[in-house]
Amino acid sequence: MHFSIPDTEEVKEGSVSFTIYNIYINGVFHCKARYKQLRQFHDELRKEFGSLTLPEFPKKKLLALSPAEIEQRRATLERYIQLVSQDPQIGNSSLFNNFLLTAQQESQTEEAERVTLDAFLMNGHKITVNIMSTDQTEDVLEAVAQQIEIPDDFVHYFGLYLVKKEDDGDNSIVRRFQEFESPYLSLKAANKDGVHRIVLRKGYWDSSYDDDLLENKVTMNLLYVQANNDIERQWILATKDQLNHLSNLKKKGSKREFLRLARTLKYYGYMQFKPCVTDYPQPNTRVIVCAGQKELNFRVNIDGQVKEGSFKITRMRCWRITNVQNTDANANSSTSVKSQLELSFEYLMSRDSLQWISITTDQAMLISMCLQNMVDELIMKKQGKKFKKSTDRLKLNKNSGPFKPISRELSYGVDKTSQEPTRKPVIAAPEDQSAITKAMDSVKKMGKGGPKQETLTENDAFEGIGDEDL
């Protein structure tokens, strides 16, 4: 996960002024927090995991901070939460997730109440569930699964995704909902333009897991719906004869046979991203990237011919997300600077040769999460573990915990003209910039000398090349 604190807000409550830090996760606004609340969170982490585990926390100061000191504290807090989140023991703890879930609830001034929530399949079929507005992701997933009678053993083969309807009518996947958030609140914050929805999709990458789901009528139908949609939008490629055969199987209602054929097709089980730009095999190459089956796949047009290359996740030593700035001069000799997100991974090209390969795309965060999920799944499978069941997980307690909830004073904004507190809820996502722009502002900039102080995601599944690979 990529944590960032791209900006701050100054809030005045009566005669007291304080700074609020806006926390983004994977390029999306998540919550607001004061320094003292983050300090309390740090103290609880120190009690739970020991001081030697944690990075240094910015010290408290008695006097009011200058703008330069506030900026320094923002950067230090950002670095702190990035380092803490990278520790698997901390990042997977109920303490960590409870803090983020509670912070999201308090930041949106949302009281827990009974609500209805619509989730969809990729074919548009709607599933309506009754939940609490503050229910965490897996509570909502289990409610959706129960509504359509997915067996308990198979619930966590699936995931909930935030999907956006693009201007061309296509649906693009924005991200997968994480356990530390409430899908209802996240959708509410994202859906001011009414083009976002929650979609149920399978949550694994290795298509061999399909064998488990094909034995149940409900889960088999979910696989069928997704495969059919992926074929229609050409995420899965098929020849004309194969398409005719699939069409005949659909007419007959032979879903199992349809899936057996679909599983033999190219890019089955892959997630395809929007067209973007890569520096491989040469700079400024237009590319279609898709992820699946333990790899990133590139399709590029070279001299009028489409060629493809595959990059195995086991040969990616690490990857990073940076912000690159392109400067273009127009006819009036003025300059225009445009920031873009860039995902770069260090790839083992041969036994003694590592090479950085970069992809410039506003879906860099999503691709990074897909890589991490594929790595986690590969390690899980190697260790002989299985997908968890609903009874295996520890549910977060939203009403109590190892620390006090976020202060209600975060629920109110400030009238900039009068400098007096107003009784308007704070808007969850600032409107002056998009979430992607905020994310780009928060990652480290890449200058002429290369990346500086970037946070690398190390690959725990990285493997060397043996003689049999050469």
From TrEMBL:
Gene Ontology CC entries for this record: cytoplasmic vesicle membrane; early endosome
InterPro entries from the UniProt entry: PH-like_dom_sf, PX_dom, PX_dom_sf, RA_dom, SNX17-31_FERM_F1, SNX17-31_FERM_F2, SNX17/31_FERM, SNX17_FERM-like_dom
Region entry Disordered, spans: 407-470
Main localization, broad class: membrane
One Pfam family from the record: SNX17-31_F2_FERM
Keywords associated with the record: Cytoplasm, Cytoplasmic vesicle, Endosome, Lipid-binding, Membrane, Protein transport, Transport
Subcellular localization(s) per the UniProt record: Cytoplasmic vesicle membrane; Early endosome
GO molecular function: phosphatidylinositol binding
GO biological process, one term: intracellular protein transport
Domain PX intervals: 1-107
KW Transferase (keyword) present: no
Residues covered by the Ras-associating domain: 114-205
Bilayer topology term: Peripheral membrane protein
Function, in words: Critical regulator of endosomal recycling of numerous surface proteins, including integrins, signaling receptor and channels. Binds to NPxY sequences in the cytoplasmic tails of target cargos. Associates with retriever and CCC complexes to prevent lysosomal degradation and promote cell surface recycling of numerous cargos such as integrins ITGB1, ITGB5 and their associated alpha subunits. Also required for maintenance of normal cell surface levels of APP and LRP1. Interacts with membranes containing phosphatidylinositol 3-phosphate (PtdIns(3P)).
Family: Belongs to the sorting nexin family.
Protein name as catalogued: Sorting nexin-17
Organism: Biomphalaria glabrata (Bloodfluke planorb)
Lineage: Eukaryota, Metazoa, Spiralia, Lophotrochozoa, Mollusca
